[in-house]
Amino acid sequence: xxxxxxxxxxxxxxVKCESGNLVRCEHATALVKGERIRAVIGDDVDxxxxxxxxxxxxxxxxxRRTSFVRRDPAERTSSQVLAANFDLVIIAEPLVNLNxxxxxxxxxxxxxxxxxxxxxLTKSDLASPEEAAAIAREASDLAGRTVKVLVVSxxxxxSIERVRALVPEGNVAILIGKSGVGKSSLVNLLAGSKxxxxxxxxxxxxxxxxxxxxxxxxxxxxxxxxVDMPGxxxxxxxxxxxxxxLAFADVDELATKCRFRDCSHNDxxxxxxxxxxxxxxxxxxxxxxxxxxxxEIEAVRAKREDARRMRGEKASxxxxxxKNSR
Length: 326
Known about the structure:
By secondary structure, the chain is α/β, with parallel strands linked by helices.
């Protein structure tokens, strides 16, 4: 029997079968001990319903068309898949006190999934219209031309409808962002009912407590589905070269004009990126962020290869590990 994982909490995965039935499931021993993978929210799975068993059994996980992957915060040389089979990543960031570095990192991770990406700036009521417009322009400059940037407020129904339009029927979006940015409130407004718990917000800075502890797929009226991801403190990069290139398309475009193909944009002669910084075309802080994230990706890759060599893994084992990480 085939189904989709629609909820992950502190218990067992909840699978919605093609018949519409909801079944609590556990993983087959072969998945846990053999492949060492677990189903995540959005996974398409095959389940069995053994006689006399109080739960279904997840026998296999279908290949993922998209996945949201970060470096496992508990293991420096392994990855962690948080969600699968979505069409859009919505990054939620508070409009006031926008964290530029975090947004850049989130954009890299979002682009690496291969899905569409959008940015939603929440709690715009805490800023004046002029301030909101200026911050939105800054976020748009960071996100690039291919990423929609929307400004929303809980008391502005039109702004909520613009977000809802990003998730048409048949599509799935995941909503990421740090705790307290208003993700749960946004999901409730999109769904038209209270489906997620929310916490009080401090008036001085608009920050709230972390309340979402599970991942659940919420169906939107006349639309698709959205997954409210718990606030993720650690956003360690994994194999994110593609995401880095897309998130920093301006740097990559300039790099094509450098004299050396492998230019590191540090002190090489005829470096177009450094020239752009000198002329003011590219912000120095932008290049510094690019260097920091690029160095992190390389460091993780080197540590991963060292760990595999110490374990005596073969090239075929590395290919299998890459496949399972997605």
